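Severity: low
Component: inverse-folding endpoint
Summary: output formatting inconsistent between runs
Steps to reproduce: submit the following structure tokens with default settings.
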């Protein structure tokens, strides 16, 4: 009997045979490769085909609707690859482990998303609390807005301000 842990490392070995870099977190798998020419695109497709074969062999289905292709940098190369007969959509940004990653690696979309969530929650506090006691509203803000959004926001403010020279 093969454990799930051993089974997963078999997959990593298969992908690394195709010179594809692999990053793992829980049940999340990221594959990335530097594309210079069509040979690299074929190598990526071969690695994806190996992933499908592995998935079928171990009866662990791939969530194809969660898969996409994100070109990082200025060159898009017009890449078309697929998984199991489905062409992967090419996106300009994607959410990865609750962080929005864009093709230019700018934190702008992620910062905007966090600020929007914080603004909605702060507005919800003002609409639902009848009291206008400043201490109560401050406590509600700290519990419902800052504590939830603060952990993501604090390091991004530094990144964003450094990039845009606003601090």
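Observed output (run 2 of 3):
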């Amino acid at each position: 009997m093969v454990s799930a842990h051993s089974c997963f490392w078999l997959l990593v070995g298969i992908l690394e045979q195709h010179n594809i870099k692999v990053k793992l977190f829980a049940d999340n798998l990221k594959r990335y490769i530097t594309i210079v020419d069509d040979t690299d695109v074929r190598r990526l497709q071969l690695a994806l085909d190996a992933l499908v074969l592995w998935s079928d062999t171990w009866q662990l289905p791939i969530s194809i609707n969660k898969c996409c292709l994100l070109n990082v940098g200025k060159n898009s190369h017009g890449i078309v690859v697929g998984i199991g007969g489905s062409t992967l959509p090419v996106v300009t940004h994607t959410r990865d482990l609750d962080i929005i990653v864009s093709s230019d690696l700018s934190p702008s979309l992620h910062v905007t998303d966090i600020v929007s969530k914080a603004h909605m929650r702060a507005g919800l506090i003002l609409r639902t609390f009848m009291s206008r006691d400043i201490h109560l509203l401050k406590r509600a803000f700290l519990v419902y807005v800052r504590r939830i959004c603060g952990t993501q926001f604090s390091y991004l403010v530094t990144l964003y301000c450094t990039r845009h020279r606003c601090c």
